[in-house]
Design goal:
Chain A: Pfam families: CO_deh_flav_C, FAD_binding_5. The complex is a heterodimer of chains A (277) and B (793). Chain A has helices spanning 14-23, 37-42, 78-83, 85-90, 92-98, 104-109, 112-118, 124-131, 149-152, 222-229, 233-243, 254-272; strands at residues 7-10, 28-31, 50-53, 63-66, 69-73, 135-140, 143-148, 153-155, 158-159, 166-173, 180-187, 194-203, 206-212, 219-220. In chain A, the strands form 4 sheets. Chain A has a 5-stranded antiparallel β-sheet. In chain A, strands 11-12-13-14 form a 4-stranded antiparallel β-sheet, sandwiched between helices. Chain A is α+β, with helices and mostly antiparallel strands. Chain A is globular. The N and C termini of chain B lie far apart (66 Å). In chain B, the strands form 8 sheets. Chain B has a 7-stranded mixed β-sheet, sandwiched between helices. Chain B has a 5-stranded mixed β-sheet with strand order 7-17-16-15-8, with helices on both faces. Classes of the chains: A alpha+beta (277), B alpha+beta (793). At the A-B interface, helix 12 of A face helix 4 and helix 19 of B.
């Protein structure tokens, strides 16, 4: 099918993008890497959008250290995150996740802000930032606000981004010495959306666990985290399987996904010890 | 005169060598010309309103809003196109009892699957046509959908086509020997229920057609991505009331076919009908969603089968009950009964046994029609046969290779007729198996498997022997009344510069037909392949032929090319003899030079001969035949089909916690007779294997109970991709067919025929110590875990 856009404008800077968004009468859609939006338009799942292209706003791309935090601009491409030395040192989970995201052509275009704002429950980055206890930075004509990852992802493709807001960056605490970050997933084919996936971060004696493709949004698993803090892997698996809410589709049933999440959590824990996958 | 194929150093020895593909540089430089690249003055585009329901009465159609959309030229309903296009009925006389209702280019009165074209909107751009299609208002009254294969014939199931009486399209029972007695007396009987999933051949280039009607000449020209230009010529002429000679089908570059592009599709005939009505060129390019809900599907089978063996593992009898659901129509003109019929013909194929019963039941469903897709019926028959043979071996505690060796036809047993009444001219099952054992180091792998199993790593080896039907005679379609040529032709001519032009009725779909033809003609005439230009895919230009399907391009088209090239060589030498005042029988053509056969001494370059023939014919003796053009046609006549054979092996690892199968290596030894181009044959085998692996592990069209297609995109319908594919080792045994000088049989489908069975057997070999077995393709991680009872049913 041929896409049917309502209009297109290229934003020169964030303020310009916000003005365009405000003037769009609710039809505005932010176009960044376009790897999900353009596909949806080509399937006519999304019609009549006023596209606001932010892809040339250089200030929105890049990775920097800010005190004890790492800040990643929303327009930073997946491929750039995969090879960025700061990400590798301070948030290796994101760098490791890149290898699981689609294929090179998509990684060269897709942006982390786009992936987080799109909030696909099967995508890697949303689950990663949840496990990393990250903060989302939003801007609107009224000003800026920060939203914790825990509060950001609400439902399938739904986030805390309000009308007139743009996600401009994500930041997270820098990894501490000795911190371990592990991502494990199973997909039917390399680059496919995962049938289930687990992100596990061990910071000091505490653990954070998030799961993807097993619910309507990336799922934090506090019960599993507490059990891991207590050193009880079996209890963690049991807790996780009670905390996720997998669905059935043509690729796999909810039962299979639930089982797989448990297997992947055990493998992620094994990965903490540096054991082979 | 024969060619000494056994001597690789013979002059002009291009047959049997890897030569460059003449179209490769053009295609990789983006200089190919596909249908969508063709743009004509006054071109319009058509988009189709397709049924959103699996079965519905079309109560009313309102096109008024659509007609007002900017750019829309005209909107057509089924009744309007039926007025200029007669319906077709896809039956063949030799498939006794096959029935199917008349089918129109657009649904008339009733829609019978999700995706069936209902209204056509023609506009100045595809976008405008789609906008118009969105504005068409069709009032559908839902009818009950028939979506379950195994209950299609139950009394409580609605009849899809009332005038057909029931939902049974075709049934065939074949019985040879005393099957019941053999089973009753058998030492061991194994039985299993196999499922092969409905899937489709995903072509990189979607279905594409551009049709122009020139009323001044009364001529229709169709640029069409098709495997069978002459067949399409006939179909368009017949149903649009045009003399056959006034329909020209041009088939330029085609981006993959796999059998998908050898059928008649209603939306493509509608495009031609619209061109005739409007008197201007109309283009239809299917988009990917349309591919999934209109390209033919295939392989939707459920089979219960039994195998009886004696205590030595010798096969006593085989009993197969095959069911397949074809969609709402049999597909024109090849029909949708062939696949089930092939299952009956091919089960048990490699094995020498006496008692065989097979039945196929072909039922209608409110789904996309199914038809012939690469290796038609073979993957199903091979999976059933090889699955049962492995189960019997396991029951007897026998090695899977040993049980096959005890049952395969001896290599010196030919000619022989199988219990399915297939006639084999010459096969090499044992030689192929021996070669496979060497290539894969079978004993070494078994040792490795045992060592890893002790560490909790589950690897499996799967073997699958197979036969493959190639080079079909008119017994495939012609005897049933279809105007589908089993014969093919080639015209070869020499131009004044000594270059050669070959026009062939077989077609290039991306598989390398033109490379094959160029080297056959080069050797036949005596020039280098780069001096041969090959022209295919134009019904107004090439000799009449069948095109490319059923692995016939090299065996039929290649032989016609060789015969015509040899005839041209003879003509050239006749002329050369007169010019050189030499006996033509003492002359030869080598590397574009007329030479003295005995000494190899150059006598005259072909361009000099061409100069004289074409410009100084006055210097040649009056009455000397000087036609530097020859045409030959070839058809097989001794056997209905040239069967090939081979054996594949898969080596894989099953993750018993996740159910994921990792393919580690794959082997195929096959015998396609004379190998013309080793690289092209190997790549055909590899590509075929990959397509079979898709069916084994990934590809499955999902419908819900209402007949809604659930996975109509490349994100949801999984095709095999490079990262998951194993290294593949290809070996050959060559048993040339004696029907032709070339001796080539087909190679395009062997990979697909055997690889699903090899993978199934390897998975089951890996799982056997755990007491699990899978027989329902594709073998998804979930199905494997269910078989392992890791998750419940």
């Amino acid at each position: 099918m041929k896409a049917s856009a309502g209009g297109y404008a290229r934003a020169a800077d964030v303020r310009h993008a916000l003005d365009l968004l405000s003037a769009s009468g609710g039809m505005g859609r932010i176009l960044a890497g376009g790897q999900s939006l353009v596909a949806a338009m080509n399937m006519r799942l999304s019609e009549g959008d006023m596209l606001i292209d932010i892809s040339r706003i250089a200030a929105l791309a890049g990775v920097e250290e800010q005190g004890d935090r790492l800040r990643i601009g929303a327009l930073t491409r997946h491929a750039a995150i995969g090879r960025d030395p700061l990400v590798r040192r301070h948030a290796p989970l994101l760098a490791d996740a890149v290898a699981h995201i689609a294929h090179s052509a998509i990684r060269n275009r897709g942006t982390i802000g786009g992936a987080l704002a799109h909030a696909d429950p099967a995508a890697e980055f949303p689950a990663c930032v949840l496990a990393l206890d990250a903060t989302m930075h939003l801007e609107s004509l009224e000003g800026s606000r920060d939203v914790a990852a825990d509060d950001f992802f609400q439902d399938v493709f739904e986030t805390a981004i309000a009308e007139g807001e743009i996600l401009t960056a994500v930041s997270m605490p820098r990894a501490l010495p000795g911190e371990r970050q592990v991502i494990r997933e199973v997909a039917r084919r390399s680059g496919d959306y995962a049938l289930a996936g687990i992100c596990l971060v061990r910071r000091g004696d505490t653990h954070r666990v998030s799961a993807f493709s097993v619910g309507p949004r990336p799922m934090l698993a506090p019960g599993a985290m507490a059990a891991l803090d207590a050193g009880d892997i079996d209890a963690a698996v049991e807790a996780l399987q009670g905390e996720i809410d997998p669905a059935s589709d043509t690729q796999a049933s909810a039962d299979y996904r639930g089982h797989l999440a448990g297997v992947l959590l055990r493998r992620a824990v094994a990965g903490l010890q540096g054991e082979a996958e | 005169m024969t060619i000494r194929f056994d001597n690789p150093d013979r002059p002009n020895s291009y047959i049997g060598k890897t030569v460059p593909r003449p179209n490769a540089a053009r295609l990789v430089q983006g200089r190919g010309q596909y249908v969508d690249d063709v743009v004509l003055p006054r071109l319009v585009h058509v988009a189709f309103v397709r049924s959103p329901l699996a079965h519905a009465r079309i109560a009313a159609i309102d096109t008024a809003e659509a007609a007002r959309v900017k750019g829309v030229v005209r909107v057509f309903t089924g009744e309007e196109l039926a007025a200029v296009c007669t319906p077709w009925v896809a039956v063949l006389a030799h498939l006794k009892g096959l029935k199917s209702p008349p089918q129109y280019p657009l649904a008339v009165g009733r829609a019978t699957w999700v995706g069936e074209p209902v209204v056509a909107v023609v506009a100045t751009s595809r976008l405008a046509a789609e906008e118009g299609a969105n504005m068409v208002d069709v009032d559908y009254e839902p009818l009950p959908a028939v979506t379950d294969m195994m209950t299609a014939l139950d009394a409580g199931t609605p009849v899809l086509h009332e005038e057909m009486g029931d939902n049974l399209a075709f049934r065939r029972l074949h019985e040879q020997g005393d099957v019941d007695a053999a089973f009753a007396a058998a030492h061991t009987v194994v039985e299993a229920h196999f499922t092969t999933a409905r899937h489709t051949g995903v072509t990189p280039e979607p279905r594409s057609i551009l049709v122009d009607w020139n009323p001044a000449e009364g001529q229709m020209t169709a640029w069409h991505a098709t495997q069978a230009p002459h067949m399409i010529q006939t179909v368009l002429a017949q149903h649009l009331d045009i003399p056959e000679g006034r329909v020209r089908v041009i088939c330029g570059d085609v981006g993959g076919s796999y059998g998908i592009k050898v059928h008649v599709y209603p939306d493509e005939v509608a495009t031609a009908a619209i061109a005739k009505i409007l008197g201007r060129p109309v283009k239809f390019i299917a988009d990917r969603l349309e591919s999934f809900n209109t390209d033919i599907h295939a392989r939707d089978h459920e089979i219960v089968a039994r195998l009886a063996v004696d205590e030595e593992g010798r096969i006593l009898a085989m009993d197969v009950d095959d069911w397949t659901a074809i969609g709402s129509y049999s597909v024109y003109p090849r029909t949708s009964a062939i696949e089930g019929n092939q299952v009956v013909n091919l089960c048990g194929g490699p094995y020498d046994f006496a008692n065989y019963r097979a039945r196929t039941s072909v039922v209608f469903q409110n789904k996309v029609p199914t038809c012939q897709y690469r290796a038609v019926g073979h993957p199903i028959a091979v999976a059933v046969t090889e699955g049962l043979v492995d189960m019997a071996a396991a029951r007897l505690g026998m090695d899977p290779v040993e049980i096959r060796r005890r049952n395969m036809y001896r290599d010196n047993a030919y000619p022989v007729t199988s219990p399915a009444m297939m006639r084999f001219e010459g096969l090499s099952h044992h030689a192929s198996m021996n070669r496979l054992m060497e290539l894969m180091d079978y004993d070494g792998l078994r040792a490795e498997q045992a060592a890893l199993r002790a560490k909790g790593i589950y690897r499996g080896i799967g073997i699958a022997s197979f036969i493959e039907l190639t080079n079909p005679s008119p017994f495939m379609y012609g005897i049933g009344g279809a105007r589908i040529s089993a014969q093919d032709g080639c015209t070869v001519r020499m131009d004044p510069d000594g270059s050669i032009v070959a026009l062939s009725g077989v077609t290039e779909q991306g598989q390398g037909t033109e490379a094959m033809l160029s080297q056959v003609v080069a050797e036949g005439v005596g020039v280098s392949p780069d001096r041969v230009r090959v022209i295919t895919g134009d019904t107004q230009v090439t000799p009449y032929g069948g095109g490319t399907w059923a692995s016939r391009g090299a065996g039929i088209g290649g032989e016609a090319a060789l015969q015509s090239a040899r005839a041209l060589r003879h003509s050239i030498l006749e002329v050369a003899g007169a010019m050189l005042q030499a006996d033509p029988s003492g002359l030869d053509i080598r590397a574009g030079q007329v030479v003295d056969t005995a000494s190899g001494e150059a006598r005259m370059p072909l361009e000099e001969l061409g100069r004289i023939v074409y410009f100084r014919g006055d210097t040649l003796p009056k009455g000397l035949p000087r036609e530097l053009v020859q045409t030959r046609h070839f058809i097989t006549s001794d056997y209905p089909f040239a069967f090939t054979n081979g054996v594949q092996a898969s080596w894989l690892e099953v993750d018993t916690e996740t159910g994921v199968v990792k393919l580690l290596k794959h082997w195929c030894v096959e015998d396609c007779g004379r190998v013309i181009n080793p690289l092209l044959v190997d790549e055909q085998i590899r590509g075929g294997i990959v397509q079979g692996l898709g069916g084994a592990l990934y590809e499955e069209i999902h419908y819900d109970g209402e007949g809604q297609l659930l996975n109509g995109s490349m994100a949801d319908y999984l095709v095999p991709m490079a990262a998951e594919m194993p290294d593949m080792v290809i070996g050959h045994v060559e048993t040339p067919t004696m029907e032709s000088m070339l001796g080539a049989k087909g190679a395009g489908e062997a990979g697909t025929a055997g690889s699903p069975a090899a993978v199934m057997n390897a998975i089951n070999d890996a799982l056997r110590p755990l007491g699990a077995e899978v027989t329902a393709m594709p073998f998804t991680p979930e199905r494997i875990l269910r078989a392992l009872r890791v998750i419940g049913n």
